[in-house]
Design a protein that fits this description.
Elements (H helix, E strand, L loop, with lengths): L2 H10 L4 E5 L5 E4 L2 E4 L8 H11 L5 H9 L1 E6 L6 E9 L2 E9 L13 H7 L4 E6 L6 H15 L3 E6 L12 E6 L7 H8 L6 E4 L5 H12 L3 E6 L4 H10 L6 H11 E11 L5 E9 L2 H8 L6 H6 L9 H10 L5 H7 L3 H23 L8 H8 L18
Parallel strand pairs: 7-11, 7-12, 8-9, 8-10, 10-11
Antiparallel strand pairs: 1-2, 1-6, 2-3, 4-5, 5-6, 12-13
């Protein structure tokens, strides 16, 4: 197996992921579904060992790490290939590899069809902004777009801590220092503590995984830095609850108070198949205002969804609204949106109402305006005809 030729073929076919497993031909993910490359032979254990050695060629110590732990997260690129995030693991005693294609160019907010609330959060200068969603929901790409916006629009120092580094950010107006766990630093926790001494304005943490990382991130946000990170949660309400649950119960009130003060917003997204091919993100945006801060402080996360629904003035958007807009714009099919919604029945009712409202508004806009007839003209048309010489009295006899 020629690994580079395989990866090039996958990229040219529009794949986002490549899976290599013993006894199967290479398998690629396109538009969210897995497809085997039947014109490639089934892979052997030796071929996968050689592929792993090729991936670890730049940092041979990582091969030793895999031998000791059976796990490896790294990045790979070669020649004209784009960058790949690679995870190697053992299953049933054999090596398997998963490659994720990393785009060469950072897409803009407009190219990603992100709502205005995302740009608003990208223009924050301090506090905590979280991008959440399941694995493969596009969190890394959204964060990269935010970093690129800051990089081009401000003169600041951006420090990223990633495992591994995925999208490379050249310096534009800002300086970008990208640190990879296992290569440039031992751990997220150590790198994050050191980052506060590196004169940063913006700190990106690849993922909030535990109480120690979360607490350091909160402290950095409290001290006036803009902190960006990701979590594997489905919406803003769950994100707030998960952040508090990182800590022991005796600290919950304190953490809620800190979070209410530093959390600037939560971007939660899911990738859905487009009607005409490809995928698009449905995005919920929560921007912390005084009402949401009170809900966080008072431990009422179940009311956050209603606050987002009523927060359009603040550029907020619910996940349901995002799905309805995507259906109305013809970006995704109705059934795809319904299956992705939290409650299928409620979503379909809301969708029908919105589509009827839009149809009525469009019909009203297309109808010709009523003719403007002056009041005297109306009176002349309404006045009864009278015989010559008849008085113009406005009184009429009964029965006449």
């Amino acid at each position: 197996m020629d690994l580079n030729r395989l990866l090039q073929h996958a990229v040219e076919s529009g794949a986002t992921d490549v899976h290599l497993k013993v006894g199967r031909p290479p398998i690629v993910r396109r538009d969210g579904a897995l497809w085997p490359l039947d014109d490639w032979a089934e892979l052997t254990e030796r071929e996968l060992e050689k592929a792993l050695e090729q991936v670890c060629e730049v940092v041979p110590s990582r091969l030793e790490t895999f031998g000791a732990t059976g796990e490896l997260d790294t990045a790979y690129t070669s020649g004209a290939l784009p960058r790949f995030r690679v995870n190697a693991f053992r299953q049933r005693g054999s090596i398997s590899l998963a490659f994720r294609v990393v785009p060469r160019q950072v897409p803009s907010f407009e190219q990603l069809s992100l709502p205005p609330g995302v740009r608003k959060l990208a223009e924050e200068h301090r506090g905590l902004v979280l991008v959440t969603g399941a694995t493969g929901s596009g969190k890394t790409t959204t964060l990269a777009a935010i970093i690129d916006h800051i990089n081009r629009s401000r003169r600041q120092h951006i420090v990223t801590i990633e495992d591994p580094i995925e999208i490379l950010h050249p310096d534009h107006s800002s300086i970008v220092s990208q640190r990879e766990v296992g290569l440039d630093t031992e751990s997220f926790e150590q790198a994050l503590r050191r980052a506060l001494r590196q004169d940063p304005d913006v700190i990106l943490i690849g993922e909030l995984r535990d109480a120690e990382t979360a607490q350091t991130a909160l402290q950095a946000a409290e001290s006036g830095h803009l902190v960006l990170s990701t979590m594997h949660t489905v919406d803003a309400a769950e994100t707030v609850s998960r952040m508090v649950e990182f800590f022991p119960g005796v600290k919950h009130a304190q953490i809620r108070s800190i979070l209410a003060g530093v959390l600037r917003g939560v971007i939660s997204q899911r990738l859905l198949p487009r009607a005409d091919g490809g995928r698009i993100a449905a995005v919920e945006v929560m921007i912390t205002n005084s009402r949401i801060a009170d809900l966080i402080r008072e431990s009422r996360p179940e009311e956050i969804s209603d606050a987002i629904d009523e927060g359009e003035f603040f550029a907020m958007q619910t996940y349901t609204k995002a799905l309805i807009d995507l259906v109305a714009d013809g970006e995704i099919d109705r059934d795809v949106a319904a299956d992705a919604s939290t409650n299928r029945h409620d979503f379909l009712v809301a969708l029908e109402y919105e589509l009827k409202r839009q149809a009525a508004a469009a019909a009203a806009a297309e109808s010709p305006p009523a003719e403007d007839v002056s009041s005297p003209e109306l009176e002349r048309q309404a006045a009864p005809e009278r015989e010559p010489g008849q008085p113009t009295s406005s009184l009429r006899l009964a029965g006449s």
